[in-house]
Write a structure and sequence with these properties.
Helix content is 25%, strand content 21%. The chain contains 12 helices and 20 strands. The strands form 4 sheets. It has a 7-stranded mixed sheet with strand order 12-11-10-9-18-19-20. α2 runs parallel beside α4. The protein is globular. The two termini are 24 Å apart. Bound molecules: fe (ii) ion. The site of fe (ii) ion (FE2) has 7 residues, from loops.
């Protein structure tokens, strides 16, 4: 990210409607975690100020130094210290979703903190847009003004029985309001989800009892134009997911083919030699007790042994590779999201070239920003979005980017942890969004973001057959980090075959 880091930072502040002073930028660039500090600056900026000054950067860096001197790294943002200097770091951790324990002990208070964090984090991305003129808090909306805009969280969506207009119930920090999305208006073609944050331009009727009408909808979304993270040379990363070690259905023959490929044996040795990184998007092991009568599907019924087996399998990969792994819902870690990294007791047998992060995590590989999320929220988003399917996970991922949120729906199948910061907000905008969980394989692109649903290394289980899930296993996505070009390798027969999948 070296050469482009300045442009990235300037754009990051622009996206949050902040102007950064040249001296402030200079100082940020001397820090070893400039993106993490920038994000904290945006979060802490005193209400409404459009500037990031050198004094603000100095004050924040000093407080971070004090926090470091006082003890271990503060848990608030969950980020890890980067150990190598920037110019020598092909891997750079930007932020982990997990942000330490809840600050409030009462669940209601803790969830209020979480949702305030979500609202503020996403409202920052919407504020200042010309499409949202006359922006007001809900409490200060005046019918007499004729038109105004709000940024709000969707609490409820319902349809009027006769005319099929949509009525949205919206909340912000000051109050609640109902608004009407007329049938056949542009807004009616959008699908609104509970707990997503949107910007709405409203028109008020002269008749006071009528609901305001939604004239335009703005989603936080990924900016159309932004600096793109690209590696300076054509080095590559390979993306895997859902290994499910310990399962009887683990595809050991396909895995052996993958290992041989990465060791440079066979016809694609040149491609293999250009791979520096392996990313694994969760469900590293099959776990125990994850679904009814899972024990019948297990080859290893002790979870500690499953991680030992994971260690043995990862030791088979060449040592020169950097392996980055996040947990999934089958892993032995708190299931509520964001999930913390696996405990050191479980990862003690993993080779030293493996970095185990929380789920989700944002990191850069050779300057390419990657958001890695296992994808549990597919279980809520697919039923909630008409036409969505496990067979086409990238359509759901596109929607995640539009919302800039990985798991907006609260109270359904994806447990959300009431942490002080909403770590499921997608910030910064990534170059690659990778998920797993669906046990299929999908590639797409949206506004220069590569969407990648990485394939599983587990064959179909009885439980999946029952749930009508048809896996697409043993595909590996090899991505050139200099241009995000992609090659799909199919290991279902053991030896790799190039599959014409791409985008
Ligand atoms: Fe899985």
């Amino acid at each position: 990210m070296d050469g482009d880091l300045r442009a990235h930072l300037v754009h990051y502040f622009e996206e949050h409607h902040k102007l950064v002073e040249a001296a402030a930028l200079q100082l940020l660039l001397t820090d070893h975690q400039p993106l993490v500090v920038s994000r904290e600056l945006v979060e802490r900026a005193p209400g409404g100020t459009p500037f990031v000054t050198r004094e603000m950067v100095e004050a924040l860096l000093a407080s971070r130094r004090r926090a470091r001197a006082a003890g271990p790294a503060p848990p608030r943002s969950g980020e890890l210290e980067r150990t190598a200097p920037r110019h020598a770091a092909p891997f750079e951790l930007l932020v982990q979703g997990f942000s330490g324990p809840p600050v409030a002990t009462q669940p209601i208070a803790a969830y209020q903190v979480l949702f305030r964090s979500r609202f503020q984090g996403l409202a920052r991305l919407l504020r200042g847009r010309p499409q949202l003129p006359n922006l007001r808090p809900i409490q200060e909306l005046h019918v007499s003004e004729g038109q105004a805009s709000v940024i709000a969280m969707v609490r409820e969506v319902r349809e009027t029985p006769q005319r099929h207009h949509l009525i949205l119930t919206l909340d912000d920090e000051t109050g609640a309001i109902e608004v009407l999305v007329p049938k056949d208006s542009p807004g009616s073609r959008l699908q609104f989800l509970p707990d997503e944050v949107v910007g709405l331009h409203l028109q008020f009727s002269k008749e006071p009892h009528r609901l305001p009408r939604v004239a335009a909808v703005e989603r936080p979304d990924v900016p159309v134009s932004r600096p793109l993270g690209r590696a300076p040379t054509p080095r590559r990363a390979i993306f895997l997911s859902d290994l499910h070690l310990g399962s009887r259905s683990f595809l050991s023959e396909s895995w052996a083919g993958l290992v041989e490929f990465l060791q440079g044996k066979g016809p694609f040795a040149e491609l293999a030699a250009s791979i520096d990184h392996v990313v694994i998007a969760g469900d590293l092991v099959d776990g125990i007790g994850v679904y009814p009568r899972q024990e019948r599907d297990l080859a290893i019924s002790d979870v500690v042994e499953q991680y030992a087996e994971l260690g043995r399998r990862l030791h088979e990969l060449p040592e020169r590779l950097t392996v980055v792994a996040v947990p999934g819902n089958h892993d032995a870690v708190c299931p509520a999201e964001p999930q913390p990294p696996l405990s050191s007791a479980l990862v003690k047998d993993l080779p030293p070239n493996v970095r185990v992060l929380g789920n989700p995590s944002t990191f850069a590989l050779d300057g390419v920003v990657i958001e890695a999320y296992h994808g549990r929220s597919f279980d809520d988003l697919i039923p909630a979005l008409p036409g969505a399917s496990y067979a086409r996970p990238t359509e759901v991922m596109r929607r995640m980017l539009q919302m800039r949120h990985l798991a907006p729906i609260y109270g359904d199948r994806t447990p959300l942890a009431p942490l002080p910061r909403d770590g499921m907000v997608i910030d910064p905008a990534p170059d690659i969004l990778v998920t797993g969980h669906a046990h299929t394989y999908g590639v797409d692109r949206y506004r220069d973001v590569l969407l990648l649903n990485a394939s599983t290394w587990q064959a179909e289980t009885e439980y999946q057959r029952m749930r009508n899930i048809s896996p697409v296993p043993a595909r590996a996505a090899v991505v050139d980090l200099s241009n995000l070009g992609l090659v799909t390798l199919d290991f279902t027969g053991g030896a790799p075959r190039i599959e014409p999948v791409g985008a």
